[in-house]
Amino acid sequence: METPVEILSADDVERLLAAPDRDDVHGLRDAAVLATLYYAGANALEITHLNLGDVERRRRQIVLRGEGRTRHRVTIELELAELLDAYKSEARRLLLAQTGSASQTTQAYFLGNRAQRVQLSEVRQILGANAKAAGITKDVNLVTLRLSRAWHLREAGMAPEKIQRFLGAESRSGRRVI
C-alpha cells in the first residue's frame, strides 16, 4: 500500500527550490526541474517528455504531455520562466557539449548526465537529494510538489475546477478538463 502524499508548506517549497547550487550545471538543471514540478504542477512523466518546442516563451506557456496523447498547457510564471531560460542558455548547452556533437540534435528539454532525455529515476534522485539538502524531513515523492502546488493554489482562493484544469486532470465523467 502506498504512503499518502505529504503536503509541503510554502517555506518547505521555498527551501527545496533554493537547495540546488545554481552555479553548477547540474544544480541549475535540478533547480529548473524542481521549479517545473512545482510552478507548472508537472508530474515526473511530463518532465521526462518535455521537448524544446513545448516551452513557448512568447506565449508564456508550457505544454505538458503525459501518457499517450494527453497534454495540457500551463502559463509560465516569472520564477519558472527565469529558471528555464537560465537552464536552456547555460546548463543545457554545457550538458550537450559534454558528449560531443552527436547529441546536439536531441529535442529533450531536460537532459540527464549523458546528455540524453532525463529519466524518471533521475527526476526521483533530483527530488530526493535536494529535499535532503533542504532539511525537509517529510516523505517527499514524485507527486509531492504537484499536490503541494494544488494545495497552495486552493489556499490562495483558486476554485477547485481551475486547479483541476491547471493540473490537466480529468473530470468525474472521465473527460479531460481543458
Explain what the structure shows:
The protein is mainly α and 178 residues long. The chain has one domain: Intergrase catalytic core (hpI Integrase, Chain A). It has 7 helices and 3 strands. A 3-stranded antiparallel beta sheet has the order 1-2-3. A hairpin with a 4-residue loop joins strand 1 (55-56) and strand 2. The longest helix is centred in the middle third of the chain and has 20 residues, at 78-97. Mean pLDDT is 88; it is low at 171-178.
Keyword list:
178 residues; mainly alpha; three-stranded antiparallel sheet; 7% strand
Indicate the mean pLDDT. 88
Bin the strand percentage: 5-15%
Order of helices and strands: HHHEEEHHHH
CATH classification, class level: Mainly Alpha
Radius of gyration, taken over Cα atoms and rounded to an integer in Å: 16 Å
Q: Biggest sheet, open or closed, and with what strands and sense?
A: 3 strands, antiparallel
Roughly what percent helix?
40-55%
- The CATH architecture would be Orthogonal Bundle
Q: CATH topology, what is it called? A: hpI Integrase, Chain A
The total count of helices amounts to 7
Strand order of the largest sheet: 1-2-3
At the fourth level of CATH, the homologous superfamily is Intergrase catalytic core
End-to-end C-alpha gap: 31 Å
Uncertain ranges: 171-178
A few lines on this structure:
The chain has helices at about 10-20, 25-40, 45-50, 80-95, 120-135, 145-155, 160-165, and strands spanning about 55, 60-65, 70-75. The protein is mainly alpha-helical and about 180 residues long. The protein has a single domain, classed as hpI Integrase, Chain A (Orthogonal Bundle), CATH 1.10.443.10.
